[in-house]
Amino acid sequence: MKGWTGRFLRVNLSEQSTSVQEYEPSLARAFLGGRGFAIKILWDELRAGTAPLSPENILVFMAGPLTGLPVPSSGKLVVAAKSPLTSGYGDGNLGSRAAVMLRRAGYDGIIIKGASDKPVYLYIENEKVEFLNADDLWGMSTFDTEKKLSETHGKDVGILCIGPAGENLVLYANVHSQEGRAGGRPGMGAVMGSKKLKAIVIRGTREIETANPEELKRLGEEGYEEIKKKPNYDFWRRQGTMATVEWSQENSVLPTFNFREGEFENADKIGGYAMEKIKVLQRGCPYCNMICGNVVEDAEGKRVELDYENVAMLGSDIGLGDLKKISVLNRLADEYGIDTISVGNAIGFAMEASEKKLLKEKIEWGDFDAAKTLLEDIVFKRNDIGRLLANGVKYAAEKLGNNSKDWAMQVKGLEISAYDCHFAPAMALSFGTSPIGAHHKDAWVIAWEVQVGRESYTREKVAKVIELQRIRGGVFECLTACRLPWIELGFELDWYPKFLKAATGMEFTFDELYRIADRIYTLIRAFWIREFRGRWGREMDIPPARWFKEPLTKGRYKGKTLDLEKYNQMLSWYYEMRGWDERGVPTKKALKDLGLENIITELEKIITLK
């Protein structure tokens, strides 16, 4: 095989053993890499009903055929497992030197089973794999862990690690690298912690074999030059995703006071221009020439990398309008290894619950000290409220009752990321149908929706959501490469089949790539249905009641809500276009058409297929 290494590293932590698997080329052709490999392995190898924090859960780190090659923004890696937060399929991606090193070590992925009885970390150097004692690392922050491991193994290694949140099994702990790169919102860090796996350190010294290295080099160089010529390039280098604060405020989608509102009175104090005033440097992922890691000095004099989602969820959503204080919360979340989106959502939920007298604790909107204390309570599960919120807002609402589920801002158990959808039906559908729970990465349709009109509930909008899911959640998550050159600068999609051909020697049309994406989305849906064992229905794809019942009370769209009947019509169209039935369950025909007929028998043990 060219482009792919054709090999997975298999690790059994219980036995402290490893092996190398050479996989069939047909797997690459059918599932491409990254997320595709992840869901195929989890479907095939994970026993239905496995407890997510048990040794039997499988944790996978998967690269794609472009990972680590000299083409734009190719330093990405997917981490996946059964989610402890949602009990369904969970994954995330992160840019990291570890992605490049994994491929240079000769692997397309790592498949981890079992659990160690004491803290360990993996050291991988080409064929050599060691299980090393991590007692002295356990309890360390992600920043300190990386520093210590770099001192031990050299600054040229790639490192993936967890912090105290993962060790303490906070259900939205994630995996970290390079002091600000993070992935695996649905609790991949907790899965790592349950296995007593503190870190993975990777050094690879081999060249990745490609079909046409000279052509790949030429295309890569031309691609990098094309990106720099794009009209928005200079502004992007200045602000990165932070410019989205002003955009979201202007369009009334900036989450404010636990998604009650879409506008924040102090938005100008936390946006891209405010960030520029306190910015001290920039950094980015490997092979990226449009780096977006804007590093600022926070209120405690320490450095932290900011982006839009973190600032919105730890700022406007909790009523905090001081960027330097928001930066402290952001840094602590990164150090502790907890997802910034989910923890911001949890803090906002707690503030509203306190306001409604559902909690004995007094936690007021915009109270930085209270938010900081609560964040640490969650990480260390050190009191009742910390333990409650460490399990996510869906769980917290079930425990608190009093209709708090209506304003627990989640779908399928995963907290919603930073776009209010009172008046954005397509984006609401994107959150509702995201394959990991409410996340924006699969179909950030809201910018397009603002352009074409927000009032309508149309088939066109549904088709656009699916189109973006195919590209963003399918193609980019499998290649694996960053989608931002295309999204933010207009780097043409036509580049990617060219890169893929030069790397692998194989021709892929967009029709073929979209078919692979549809196969992956349908297999992920089947995984959810299998894990929920008959408890599946279309209600799983509907956002929280707040957006339907509670109108915006201020701003240009005052009085707006989503229309539940019209949303349900869009959801029905979505199922129809995907070949799923009215419950959101794939039909036999869809499974056969996508080459997934082999899973029909297993699914029919759980649910009647149409």
Query: Total helix count?
Result: 26
Mean pLDDT: 97
CATH architecture of the largest domain: 4-Layer Sandwich
Alpha-carbon Rg, integer: 22 Å
Structural class: alpha+beta
CATH superfamily of the largest domain: Aldehyde ferredoxin oxidoreductase, N-terminal domain
- Please tell me what the overall shape is: globular
Please tell me about this protein's structure:
The protein is of the alpha+beta class. 42% of the residues lie in helices and 13% in strands. The chain has three domains: 7-203, 4-Layer Sandwich (Aldehyde Ferredoxin Oxidoreductase,  A, domain 1); 240-418, Aldehyde Ferredoxin Oxidoreductase Protein, subunit A, domain 2 (Orthogonal Bundle), CATH 1.10.569.10; 419-490 and 509-610, Orthogonal Bundle (Aldehyde Ferredoxin Oxidoreductase Protein, subunit A, domain 3), CATH 1.10.599. Helix 7 runs antiparallel to helix 21 and helix 17 (425-433) packs across helix 19 (459-479). It is globular. The two termini are 39 Å apart.
